TrEMBL record:
Recorded coiled-coil stretches: none
UniProt-recorded name of the protein: Sodium:proton exchanger
PANTHER family attached to this UniProt entry: SODIUM/HYDROGEN EXCHANGER FAMILY/TRKA DOMAIN PROTEIN, SODIUM_GLUTAMATE SYMPORTER
Domain RCK N-terminal residue range list: 432-547
Residue stretches spanning the membrane: 27-45, 52-71, 77-96, 108-129, 135-157, 169-191, 197-225, 237-257, 312-334, 346-369, 375-395
Keywords from the named record: Membrane, Transmembrane, Transmembrane helix, Transport
Gene Ontology CC terms, in alphabetical order: membrane
Species of the source: Candidatus Uhrbacteria bacterium CG_4_9_14_0_2_um_filter_41_50
Entries under Pfam families matching the protein: Na_H_Exchanger (PF00999), TrkA_N (PF02254)
GO MF, one annotated term: antiporter activity
Length: 583
């Protein structure tokens, strides 16, 4: 008995430990149930060929308080989702180095800025018409002006369209959007700090704090971080840990200066963007980002309640239609103003017809700042589900859609481009037609010039046309997939037609046109893969260029003649550098 009585004082402690163990087990099972549910729904979504982001948001809707009520540890899930946002922005920052920004090109910068301005203005007008106040409408307009980098890059890479002309412009516009959203995010983050003055004082203090932080970061990125990461790079594990540490140092440390976690993580990535280790860091952190982003989208789904949807269904539907239809139209108009063909404008426009993951981060930051009410988030989540789901089909069937609805875009056509570039309306049929000047086309043009035959280069990229104009090469701006244009250039009377555009749909249009016109021209086309090459031969191509196969074969021939002597390659190198200068 004495032993029992002596143990009584320890009973509360043992009960506390027991309760703690139960709480820990419950939290573990809660997280496990959410992840398992997400996995099952993601499998179903993948089987149905739906975007996985939709599956995660639906998971959140299921496990949230509106239905099953599994995810009750809101603080834990919120913290995990914050880590996901931090990793996402850290990796985005790793891509925002000066070289990438410089490579975007003037057209992508101008088109990107034009699209953001017009979309934000139109979104503000629609949101205000729907009954939101001026500030909320402006933030909704800005949030919906950005497109999803994750969705676009994934689908375009799956289609192998990232290196195509419209793919390069789309990615360029995305980089511009990332930069603008970064600036907005930093501004909102700086405004979180308490300031007793008016809006002018808040903006002034925010700019001062931002300037101080950027100067300090520039100094660290220039003189300190390269040495630290060069030392850490001796061990892959150490490099990974130091990169994570740096991300958390800025993400948590800058909150004391009034910035949010998002801004700190983004700046941490930017400070390492030119370190030389960014690719290795990215490959190590990407799996972590993917896991925590799943939690982020699940948390978004938990905030999507049936009551919230009932209150904002009309706003969600109208704003979704604006993103799906209005945004592509705005991009088409902006690109047309810069001289791009409607096909390019359409393909880029439908690629960007969805709400970005940055939209949620901007809205969440604006809610934390007190600029807008939390009730906006369910509406934005509904818009995201609708636009991401539908735009994934836009991306998959973009060229089919343009071919079917091309007649709707006739009004985007400018005055005949022949008049613009000084070519007469009645032109004689050239012996050789070269469709596409970029990369492969520029190399082929050198050989064509030596053939002593009249030729014409056709492209619908204004930058390519400008280069041809500088080098005084006969050229014409136009879409070779348009039969009226092929009639105009008398394509059926040419002796040789070379198409360097690795596009199955355009190749089919050209070959079908020539077959209908009973042309005797030799038709040389370009394919991205052996599968496409076989299809092009079935269509009636004379010869199909497969760059990867042809490049390997030619290099093998060079290798047998040049061998391992370094001096033997010098003539070829000079010739290649000369060709690269022309491009």
């Amino acid at each position: 008995m004495e032993i029992i009585f002596s143990m009584l004082p320890l009973l509360p402690l043992s009960l506390f430990c027991y309760n703690q163990n139960i709480m820990e087990d419950l939290l573990f099972f809660e997280i496990a149930a959410v992840i398992i549910t997400a996995g099952v729904i993601a499998l179903i979504a993948h089987f149905l060929r739906q975007p996985l982001i939709i599956a995660y948001i639906i998971t959140g809707l299921l496990v949230g308080p509106g239905l099953l009520g599994i995810a009750e540890s809101h603080e834990v899930f919120d913290a995990l989702s914050e880590i996901g946002i931090a990793f996402l922005l850290f990796l985005v920052g790793l891509h925002l180095n000066w070289r990438n920004i410089k490579d975007v090109g003037k057209i992508a910068v101008m088109a990107g800025l034009g699209q953001i301005i017009f979309t934000a203005a139109a979104g503000w007008g629609i949101a205000y018409w729907l009954g939101y106040d001026h500030i909320t409408s402006a933030i909704i307009g800005m949030a919906f002006a950005f497109s999803s980098t994750i969705i676009i890059v994934k689908v375009l890479s799956d289609k192998e369209d990232l290196d195509r002309f419209y793919g390069r412009i789309s990615v360029g516009i995305l980089i511009v959007q990332d930069i603008v959203s970064m600036i907005l995010l930093l501004g909102l983050a700086a405004m979180r700090s308490d300031t007793n003055g008016g809006i002018t004082a808040i903006i002034g203090l925010s700019l001062v704090k931002m300037a101080v932080v950027l100067i300090v970061l520039w100094f660290l990125a220039r003189f300190v971080l390269p040495h630290v990461f060069r030392y850490a790079a001796h061990s892959q594990e150490l490099l990974f840990l130091v990169a994570l540490s740096w991300c958390f140092v800025l993400a948590s440390g800058l909150t004391f200066f009034g910035f949010g976690i998002e801004a700190g993580a983004l700046l941490a990535g930017i400070s390492l963007a030119s370190s030389g280790f960014q690719r290795e860091i990215e490959t190590k952190i990407r799996p972590l980002r993917d896991f925590f982003l799943v939690i982020f989208f699940i948390v978004l789904g938990t905030q999507l309640t049936v009551e919230g949807l009932q209150e904002s269904w009309l706003s969600s539907l109208i704003l979704s239609l604006f993103v799906l239809i209005g945004n592509p139209l705005i991009i088409m108009i902006v690109l047309r103003l810069f001289g791009y063909h409607p096909r390019t404008g359409f393909l880029v426009g439908v690629s960007l017809a969805q709400v970005s993951e940055f939209s949620f981060i901007l809205l969440a930051s604006a809610i934390a700042t007190g600029l807008i009410a939390p009730s906006v988030l369910p509406m934005a989540t509904a818009v995201a589900i609708i636009t991401i789901a539908i735009s994934s089909y836009f991306l998959k069937y973009n060229e089919w859609m343009f071919d079917r609805f091309e007649f709707l875009f006739r009004f985007f056509e400018a005055v005949p481009n022949s008049e613009k570039k000084g070519i007469k309306n009645e032109m004689t049929a050239p012996s050789i037609l070269l469709f596409g000047y970029h990369d492969l086309g520029a190399s082929i043009l050198h050989a064509i010039r030596k053939m002593q035959e009249d030729y014409l280069v056709v492209d619908f990229d204004p930058t390519a046309i400008d280069r041809l104009e500088i080098h005084s090469q006969p050229h014409l701006y136009g879409d070779v997939g348009n039969r009226e244009f092929l009639d105009f250039i008398k394509a059926s009377k040419a002796k040789l037609i070379i198409c360097t555009i690795p596009d199955l749909a355009i190749t089919r249009d050209v070959i079908e046109y020539l077959i209908i016109k009973r042309s005797r021209a030799a038709i040389v086309v370009t394919a991205k893969s052996a599968h496409d090459a076989r299809k092009m031969y079935e269509m009636g191509a004379t010869f199909v260029i497969v760059p990867s196969m042809l490049g390997g074969e030619l290099f093998s021939q060079l290798l047998t003649t040049k061998k391992y002597k370094k001096s033997a390659w010098s003539t070829l190198v000079k010739k290649q550098k000369k060709m690269l200068a022309v491009k």
